Hints:
Blueprint: E1 5-6, E2 12-13, E3 26-30, H1 32-35, H2 45-48, E4 55-59, H3 63-66, H4 72-83, H5 86-89, E5 95-100, H6 107-117, E6 120-129, E7 137-144, H7 152-198, H8 202-211
Parallel strand pairs: 3-4, 4-5, 5-6
Antiparallel strand pairs: 1-2, 6-7
Amino acid sequence: MYPYIATETGALFSVLKLRDFDKLAKLDVPLALLIGHADFNPGQLADVLPKGLEHLCLNDDVAGAFHFEWPTSTITKNLEVWLSNWRSVTPHLQTVELELSNSRPDLMAMEKICQKAGVNYIIHTSHILPSLHGEDRCTYYRISNEEGGLGAANVADMKADQEARYQIERREAQRAREESAEIARAKWKAVWNAICEAHSSPRARDRAYREAGGPPIGKR
Length: 220
């Protein structure tokens, strides 16, 4: 099990400062245990990675369990800062591997960073496409320089998946709005019925309804 510090809120903070572990050549570790939480001044990979590192595999395994979530820009920026100077920080580096299942990485940006740095890269990502009817669908991508990188076919597939996710999220949002509106209508209908029982005058009813903060009569 990875060493960690747990706070009263259940958050985890890194205790893996491996800079002086010169003989550590291969490392597979959750990003959170190297740089911490994105909301609490995350550290820099360049400050904690061992000097003798040859193969680094970063994953987001603890993201779902402990809410360690990073905006895409946080991941790519941290990666860029390190790889722009990797020859000084980790001079023996050969391969960068990313396994991101709980985040929504910018694959094209990450690939460009690795290509510019001149290192081998392998990027794994997968996500679940929830289905409104039937079983959910899992999509998986593996991108590496040895396999030609992010090809046009992969881009098309990812765009199709993103559009599918967008359509699902839009339908779910619409359904939530409709449910909220239905609840509101039921609430104000009950208020109006109670006012009608308390007042016999239409004018008094309208006044009481307005004072209760009800929506326009035609929209309740």
